[in-house]
Amino acid sequence: MLTLTDVKKSYREPGGDRMPILDVPHFEVQQGEQVVIRGRSGCGKTTLLNAISGLTTIDSGAITIAGVEVTRLPESGRDRFRARKLGFVFQTFNLLPAFTAVENVMLGMTFTGQPKDRGRAEELLGKVGLGHRLHHKPQAMSVGEQQRTAVARALANKPILLLADEPTANVDPAHQQQVVDLLREVCRDENVAMLLVTHSPEVSDQFDRVEHLEEVNRVVAAVSH
Ligand SMILES: Nc1ncnc2c1ncn2[C@@H]1O[C@H](COP(=O)(O)OP(=O)(O)OP(=O)(O)O)[C@@H](O)[C@H]1O
């Protein structure tokens, strides 16, 4: 479902030299598969997710999602593909404060080319246990409730792939497990593949497939401490 072939990405350093970050010969994720990405700080995990989502361009190679070589699409095509096919959960939940939970979830349906479906937004909030919080704004919700709203929003457009970058980093330990359970269960229910970046061994130990980016990536990252 997701295939990376010979993906290379570098950033330009202030002095003008190029700093290689990614050199991934081959990486695949199957439909509905749940995969954890680990690796030390600065090794390129977020860059990998951004390359897959098309938020950052790669220098060479190919990324194919559901048969579409997204790295060949123009920027507008990448934006449309991202809106229609991918979902995101970030460590800062990125909910809009002026909007209620159900409105925030409906915002996840923007740019899909389809009319917004309030029924689906309410159903998803029900699935994440927030059926009684539909009309609360983020400031009137607990941190765990906000993250669950963000999970519902990420799935609003029926994505085929969910990219989750440290989704439990800002959630207290008591609620971390809830967020992981929720992500796994909702992705399983909706047959959504998930790529989840985490530093937490407690989280990654629960997954069948854990990839260490240093093993997938040929670039040896500079130690950043
Ligand atoms: N826009 C950019 N321009 C230049 N260098 C960048 C840029 N974005 C990231 N980098 C560098 O690329 C490297 C990889 O960054 P990335 O955020 O992908 O790492 P990471 O593995 O997600 O790290 P962490 O676990 O700390 O979040 C880092 O050394 C970072 O400083």
For this structure, the CATH topology is Rossmann fold
Number of strands: 9
Radius of gyration: 18 Å
- Approximate helicity band: 25-40%
Find the structural class using helix and strand composition.
alpha/beta
Largest sheet features: 5 strands, parallel
* Strand order in space, largest sheet: 6-7-8-3-9
Question: Which CATH architecture would you pick?
Answer: 3-Layer(aba) Sandwich
Q: What is the H/E string?
A: EEEHEEHEHHHEHEHEH
How far apart the termini lie comes to 36 Å
Give the names of the bound compounds.
adenosine-5'-triphosphate
Family: Belongs to the ABC transporter superfamily.
InterPro entries: AAA+_ATPase, ABC_transporter-like_ATP-bd, MacB-like_ATP-bd, P-loop_NTPase
Organism: Posidoniimonas corsicana
Protein name: Putative ABC transporter ATP-binding protein/MT1014
